[in-house]
Every structure is written in C-alpha cells, then in structure tokens.
Amino acid sequence: MSSAIYPSLKGKRVVITGGGSGIGAGLTAGFARQGAEVIFLDIADEDSKALEAELSGSAIPPVYKHCDLMSLDAIKAIFAEIGDVDVLVNNAGNDDRHKLGDVTGAYWDERINVNLRHMLFCTQAVAPGMAKRGGGAVINFGSISWHLGLEDLVLYETAKAGIEGMTRALARELGPDDIRVTCVVPGNVKTKRQEKWYTPEGEAEIVKAQCLKGRLVPENVASLVLFLASDDAALCTGHEYWIDAGWR
C-alpha cells in the first residue's frame, strides 16, 4: 500500500504519548517517514528502545524519552525539556478490564488519570508554545468502546467519552491561536496488546460485523492521524474522526 507524504509535516516537532508500542509505534514510524522531528513518550523502556533503534535510519531519527504521564510533575518537566512543539498526539491509555463491583475510589482515580487527565495537562503544556509558533495540532485518542458499550470497561469508557467532550472544549478555547484539536476514534486495531483480550474467533466476529472486512492495523490509524496533523486538515477541528471499518 502506497501512502501519502505531507510536505507540511517535514521538520515539524511532534510529541507522541504512548509511542513505543501498538498504535503508538505505528504513529511514531508514520511521522518519522514524513521527515518530522519525533519525540515519543512512554514507560515501556524495552519496546521503546527497540523502536528507537529500528527507526534510527530515518531522516530525523525519533527520540524516546521515559515519562510517567500519571505524574503531573513529570509532564511539566518533560515538556520544559522538549521545548515548543507543532503537533501533540495524546495516544497513551490503558484498557485493562474491570468489573463495577471491583471499582474503588483509588482505582477510579488511577483509571481516569491514565486515560484522561494527562491529555489535558499535556495540551496545557504545549499550547503556549504552539501559539508562539503560529498554531499547531493536538490529536486526542478516543475509543469505539463507549459507543458500543463493551463489557468490563466502565472506567475506560467513561474516560474515553470525556475525551470527546474535552476535545470540543479545547478546540473552542485554543482556536483563536490557530491550534486545532481533534479526536481519532479507532475501532478494534490488531496489536500485541489486543491479542491479550481477543481470541482469533473473537477477532473474526469483529471483522464480520464491520462493513469492510479488512483487519485494522496501526498503520491504518497512523494514516488518519498524519492527515489531521498536516496543513491539509487546516480547517478540521473540534470533531471526532472514525477509523473502524464500519464496525459501529
């Protein structure tokens, strides 16, 4: 499959959270192929260092930085170190399964922090620099899960629903500085992590329910994100963009 090259992304400074594996690794590789300056944040050191080595031959090799996004101090410190950026992709999250009866106050805080809170504070950290550079793009990752009401994900789905609302609010607030804020809503994407939750039979049922019968992979999602980050999407903001092969 041939893929588009966006001249407007060449040399842009891009930060990707959770960029070391799964969909995030596809995003990191996609932006590197565009000639962007990519910094990806993660806590999965082994996967992230392996990806950094794999992409070391890129025109501008992506740089991995360990960052625990659960810590607001760590977020503040890492963006102070990185400096101003053009594109922020808020991809990091965790979809561990859980039952309503097992939820505690501490677990609520932990799940909301890992799936929602860091997106706001990362955006807060980059917004002034983006404004100074004349604009930018923030791309948040939602999920099809809450639209479908999938089982055993009540806190994950609560956070992901909140991300869509937050996207609209931030788009309105940051629009005067020509900062675009959008939300990507993936369907079920084939990654090593998703293999933990779905059997081959379960995957086949998902594909059967899709309008298009192809299996979504990280590269498919990256293609949408690259468009939204580019100048070709100059008037796209405040909305969700789906890539689910018509599963919904």
What does the secondary structure layout of this molecule look like, with pairings?
Elements: E1 13-17, H1 22-33, E2 37-42, H2 45-54, E3 63-66, H3 72-82, E4 87-90, H4 105-132, E5 136-141, H5 145-148, H6 154-174, E6 179-186, H7 200-209, H8 218-229, E7 240-243
Parallel strand pairs: 1-2, 1-4, 2-3, 4-5, 5-6, 6-7
Helix pairs in contact: 1-8, 3-4, 4-6
What do these coordinates show?
By secondary structure, the chain is α/β, with parallel strands linked by helices. The chain has one domain (8-243): Rossmann fold (3-Layer(aba) Sandwich). 44% of the residues lie in helices and 15% in strands. The chain contains eight helices and seven strands. Strands 3-2-1-4-5-6-7 form a seven-stranded parallel beta sheet, with helices on both faces. Strand 2, helix 2 (45-54) and strand 3 (63-66) form a beta-alpha-beta unit. The mean pLDDT is 96.
By CATH, the architecture is named: 3-Layer(aba) Sandwich
**The CATH topology, please?**
Rossmann fold
Number of β-strand runs: 7
Task: Tell me, briefly, the overall form.
Answer: globular
**How large is the radius of gyration?**
17 Å
Q: Quick one: biggest sheet?
A: 7 strands, parallel
Question: How many discrete domains?
Answer: 1
- CATH level 4 superfamily: NAD(P)-binding Rossmann-like Domain
Spatial strand sequence of the major β-sheet: 3-2-1-4-5-6-7
Question: How far is it from the N-terminal to the C-terminal residue, by CA?
Answer: 25 Å
- Provide the β-strand percentage band: 5-15%
